[in-house]
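Morning. Coffee machine broken again, so started the prediction first thing and wrote up yesterday's gels while waiting. Chain of 719 residues, entered below exactly as on the submission form.
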Amino acid sequence: MTSTGGPATDSAELDAVLAETVRRTGASIGALYLLAPDERLLHLHAVCGVGAEVAAPWETVTLAAPAPVTDAVREDRLVWVGSQEEMVRSYPRTAVVLPYPFALVAAPVTGVRRWGALLLMWPGTRPPYMTGREHANIASSCRRVARALEEAADRGSPPVLGGGTRVVPAGTGRPSTSPESAVADFVERLPGGSCALDLEGRFTFLSSGACELLGADAGRLLGTLPWQSLRWLDDPMYEDRYRAAVISRAPVAFTACRPPDHWLEFHLYPDASGISIRIVSAGEEPPPARVHRSAGTTAPARAGQLYQLTHLAAALTEVVGVQDVIDLVADQIMPAFGAQGLVLSAAEGGRLRITGHRGYAAETIERLDGLPLDTDLTPAGHALSTGIPAFFADREEIRRSHPQAPQISGAHAWAFLPLFISGRPVGCCVLSYDHPHEFPAEERAVMTSLAGLIAQALDRARLYDTKHELARGLQDALLPRTLPQIDGLAVAARYMPATRGMDIGGDFYDLIRLGDTAAAAVIGDVQGHNVAAAALMGQVRTAVRAHAALGATPDQVLAETNRLLADFGPDLFTSCLYARLDFARGSMTLASAGHPPPLLRLPGGDTRPLAVPPGPLLGIIPDTEFPVTEVALVPGMILALYTDGLVERPGVDLDDSINGLARHLARADDRDLDLLIDDLVSEACTTGQRADDIALLLLQHRAGTQRGHSPRGHSAAPG
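Came back before lunch.
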């Protein structure tokens, strides 16, 4: 496949940089991924050292997917994977679809903006570390690629994405090799050699001995794929051995039977220009433990398609909500099968309700949405009622059974894939094409298998969305919608759910009016991110409010709440910090139940964590005491109460993280608390990914002022 990636000069420059990087670093394979304008997808723009068919399963990669190339772009860092064992530990999904020994590096390509990433692969025999020279070469190449892309963009000819992958010959940018030297290379690789394949897997050379052993002449075989021109090699295992040689750059051997009973040994010797193969006769009997017989007479799917199915299946297991399923089908499954249109519908109340679509006009979707399951307008209803996929290669074929269907969508070919779970219809996935499209038996088999996985993912996602909606409704009902206006106090609050799990949690905050001259601020964190955590959070917040309203001191509030939770016997831990502000006395008293220390910023800018000796977490020890700390209330001072999601980072000491937040608060502009709280959150959440939810409450003592806030960020917040 090739793309029209801009003028030839622009593509040639990128090709030359990629090929030179592969040669200079000694890599066996190089690839350039470019970021889509919406920054949700990475497109494989060019590869060197491997054919486009081998790279097909990874033509598009969702930026949120866990993979070396996406981590490099998201986190703007070089990602090194030195062995297959490290790949299994760090990127299990990638290891499943690339089960070969190799080393890999992914480096971000960044200039005036994020362009994408450069991917390089080496055989597994290389040392499992990078030298300083290699690191410098890769960084230099990334800068050159970024400059080439920026210059092309300045000329108004940036690379076009989504048009296919460019295959860059390893010799690009240097004099081409003569046919005589190519033959010499072959002889050097395989003394008395038999045949050679290019990196696409096609025959480029055959000796007379090879033709005799294979039972075909060179004219019939040259330029063909072995598993297509020699039907007895049409087995996924043999194609997989070729892929193993191309990717690992290591010798591979296997045994195959040429009918009726002539066994041959194939020894593959790969390098950057192709594969040399030595073929020897193994006699009439198969060697022990090296035989692979193809079961049955049905032609198996291509190994590449099987890997593609495995790759997409792994991706489907990680989707969460219905929108995630729609995005994955549109961003990865549509390009994998070359489709230009998608309609994904769910079976609800005897009708087909469209849950997502791509490539269709709004009026078309409006006409299709809500059709009864027994509709004759499109084949979707018939496919759902029978459970049998329907494939139409052209408009005439679909017109014979459903005359109106071609006029509705304007497409020229369709695949209607019914989605079933244990015999129960879930919905229908329709892939459409702008041109006539034949559906070979192998492609139909892969599509049908994938439909089952989509059905499971969609059913699971709908259940998740239902639970999520209920849980978020519960949480929103428990968190305060507005904070009271209290004379002498300016406040700002923010709650941000975790980006993993159910996007809900047990973090909470509250501000309580205690008469005309006092107020209480509370913040807490219930362990977990589920309905149970949200429910317990509501109980804790209610208990704290009740005891605070009775005039209890901070230590008494925590002690009484602790006794109540201990009686409940919850399985979850709860931390809590309670602060009572007495404006008449000019003092503030605090008590903590295992909660991170608040930050105190004085009017001069001096900021430090406030030493509040913590008692045990709530609900563990029925009768316990909570130490009390008292500080003076000074006009202009700021108190920051937060949960650990704001400061906890993998590999970073918690005290260092808290001190870092204190330094940032000391430097920040405090004239607008809403802007200040946005600044603190964005500083702590630079990656956009949060394993824990966050609650943050800012209080500023402003004598003689009256200001209240509606807390923002329950459903969305910056950072």
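DSSP finds 22 helices and 29 strands in the chain. Going to sketch it on the whiteboard this afternoon.
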